[in-house]
Records
---
Amino acid sequence: MKILVTGGAGFIGSHVCEELLAREDEVVCVDNFNDYYNPRIKERNIVDCLEKRNCRLCRGDILDFSLMRSVFEKENPRKIIHLAARAGIRPSINNPFLYEEVNIRGTLNLLELAKQYGIDNFVFASSSSVYGNRTEGCFKETDMVDKPISPYAACKKAGELFCYNYNHLYDLNCSCLRFFTVYGPRGRPDMAPFKFVDKIARGEEIEIYGEGTSRRDYTYISDIVGGVVAALDKSHKYELFNLGGANPVQLNYFVSLIENNLNKKVKIRYVEKQQGDVEMTFADVSKSREMLGYEPKVSIEEGVRRLVEWYDLVYNFRRNPK
């Protein structure tokens, strides 16, 4: 099976590409290597994949419709995993027009090409942020999600609506996956898990917004990849799926796990909460369990241990401590 993976050099994308290649699918990775963070990180993410005979890389932007059409024309993929997006809650508040352009128009470009080229299955990476700001109860796919509190969240909800639209009008199979705080090896440097590990390892102060009592349903990368591949393999006309760890933990506890695994004392500065941040995320994964066979397997304790182990391997922390 030939599969197009957009954002394939990113954190989640590179892990997805590795899994697909390991089972001998053909992978066409599309990424524009933008400067949201150091592009060399993405180059490192994808280098092993590019050594495989069944992987090809297209350096390009999903906003370039002509380029993307040429990729479809040349490669003739049968399925799409659409992970490419402008990421980040807080940056979306500062630059909403960029997020609207990339995350909505870019998704629409791919849906239109999927329709034109008869794609069998379209898997769209959405986000738990669509649920808005809630303080209790687990999040179900049937919940109302009409109160996003950031442009990023609004754009992801718009992407889900366009997927529904293309299924309704053109019978394009679409699965929208709501990711819950993904972490693990090769995690994005702007996200708290990597940023905290890096700063604590270096003896630097970390900033915690609020009092550290916010709760997140952290989800280890291998669990996310398992859900993505299951959605790819089990085509549905149009479905929403939560992919989470189903175990929200306080930020203070998450930081303490990093501290213990690094065996370094953390220096914390508490600052005011940021616009767009939610108090809690909590995935109800019963639908994903039933329809995808999804089951989160990596506990938060084990996941943080693996993250720190990877960090040590890549950055030689224990051999070159600061």
---
Amino acid sequence: MLVLGESGVGKELFAQAIHNASARRHGPFVAVNCGAIPRDLVQSELFGHVEGAFTGAARGGAAGKFELADGGTLFLDEIGDMPLEAQASLLRVLQEGEVTRVGAKKAQAVDVRVIAATHRDLTQAVTGGSFREDVFYRLNVLPLQVPPLRERREDIPRLVATMLKALSRHLERPPLAIADEALTLLLAHSWPGNVRELENVIERAVNLAQGPLIQPVDLPPSLLTNALSPGRGDERLTPLETGQRDLIRAALEQTRGNLRQTATRLGISRAGLYVKLRRFALNPADFRPRR
């Protein structure tokens, strides 16, 4: 399988989920970042080496990632950064199901499912000569395109809830929730760093929160500045959008700014409501009774 997507979308989590749902789930899941291994050690890390294969080689040799993943799944992250010489050795393993340690004369069989991932355009890399065409076709049997977070904003409330639960437990804090106003700001953000950026923002908020709710003040100032910038002006709305805005405004008035009740009245999800509030520059606080 080849998992594609921008940096930070959670490609390794998808690979782990595939492993956990497969018949190999009781076998090992071994992850390796091809872009983080020094160029001259890639083959040794992936395929192992025998004693004396090179200066600094471990006494008795060492197994590579393919051997360690035998019977399970090997996740090759950032496959687009793998050197060409290592790609040739990888192709042999993929085709023959055998791995030869650096410095060894005899190959040994391995039974490994390979899931590769990259944020690069491998088609362009093949055209440019930085990635082997034969390796690309061997890896690209079942491609999976993971969309960026900005294209699946409806996932944000569930992701936030999961992160809050995990972080509260890890930091030994009472369970936290997020205020509607803060969630509205998260839904309005473009998330160039995808899920990784969201996780960073939530971890920061958990550490700063003074009460049981994450508030807008607990979010990064830069996120607040971008999210609170004015929405589109009325002159840029289509007649359909103008009608939608008026319906939402009427529902907010009837519910006095209660977002859960407003979403129920309109028959849409809360995530969808947050996106529309941002689009139409509607602030729920403007519809709540003054104290």
---
Amino acid sequence: MQAILASELRYRRLFETAQDGILILDAETGQVVDANPFMKDLLGYSQEEFLGRKLWEIGPFKGTGASKIAFAELQLKDRIRYEGLPLETKDGQRVEVEFISNAYLVDKKRLIQCNIRDITERKLAEMASIRLAAIIESSNDAIMGKDLKGIITSWNKGAEKIFGYTADEMVGTSILRLIPSDRQNEENQILEKIKLGEGVMNFETLRQTKDGGLISVSVTASPIKDVSGTVIGVSKVARDITEHKAVEEKISRLNAELEQRVGERTRQLQDANKELQAFSYSVSHDLRAPLRHVLGFVDLLQKDAGPSLSEKCLRHLTTISQSAKRMGDLIDDLLAFSRIGQSEMQKTEVHLDKLVRKILGDFQAETKGRNIVWQVHPLPSVRADRDLLRMVLVNLISNAVKFTGHRAEAKIEIGCAPNGNGETVIFIRDNGAGFDPKYTGKLFGVFQRLHNQNEFEGTGIGLANVQRIIHRHDGRAWAEGVVDGGATFYFSIPKQ
């Protein structure tokens, strides 16, 4: 008797402390005669809500035809099992359970014990595992598993495609089968890192295929750990980068060829610049001397033979003198144009306010007696070559002064235009002769003039100098204008 009581006590303890839900049913009526405490943790219903009610009358089983079917089946069998039976908890959550029922006799009374285990997480894990397996199997990369001795334990379709071996041919064999003989020490190095719990990321190397060919691969290896955190194997991904490496090598060769060509072209340009410089000096010397002679002899003729010459001959001499002087100006401007491209820039912080006011001071003698209204707005500082930038401003201001020469009241405005492109934009605007907008593209070309020499003097090189200097500063130069309606010239300097 004592042994029976002890046995019942042990069963009761197991019943009360079990981590599965347990219901005891009367096999004749289907009424619940007992329910363990875990049923509340599992489904949210207390023992009292189960006791004395039939299985299909209880919340999570209510209205479930399967409950009556299962009960009827149990009246004929001693055991039934359902995997993934969907139930709803008291608070409306859905759970999947494993439902196992056993029928047995107690004091000649037939009872049914229903064990209910929550397998929701297990099912989710199984689905995740199935999805992961599908991803691995459909990957174009070679994904394989191996143990800590380098023996392959898994082999996907991507590995079969890349290396040419089937899973049956590779699983159970050494990974060394894929590694060229002169690189087999790489495997030991990878395994040593894995045993320390470290991974290998994007290691580029060569591997051997079934047909004996070599391919370039990028290898990533990660440790596989058991629940205790012990490293038990290796997960390895190999990506075929043969085409990628071929493209890299081609690009490298092209870059080397390009560098060689650039070097050759640079040497050619340096030689050409030296020749141009020599030519410039030659022009400076060889053309200036004859011009000085022409001007000198014209001056002598005017002094010595002037009184005896007719008015017409004197006009001819004047024309010769003016043309020679103009040729001298052209030579000077051409030399200046060539030097702009050769000189090394010395960039410093240039205060445009101070520079513009100094330049305007230099123009006082030239503009004496003229009615010019100057409007100079506050100007910022820029990083530029001060001497070259002065040449730009002198050219543009000189143009504004020249082309407003026929105005009773000339207006010249200098300011900074708003710009959001990382540039400082300066403008010089006048109310002078302007120009036809359709010829805007010619303005900055060498010897390009839009006005008659008799109307406005000039050599046609000033704006070409402006553009060349601004381009050397990585900036832009442009203009807007209308005939007899004034013009606005702009240039930009990148902000540092």
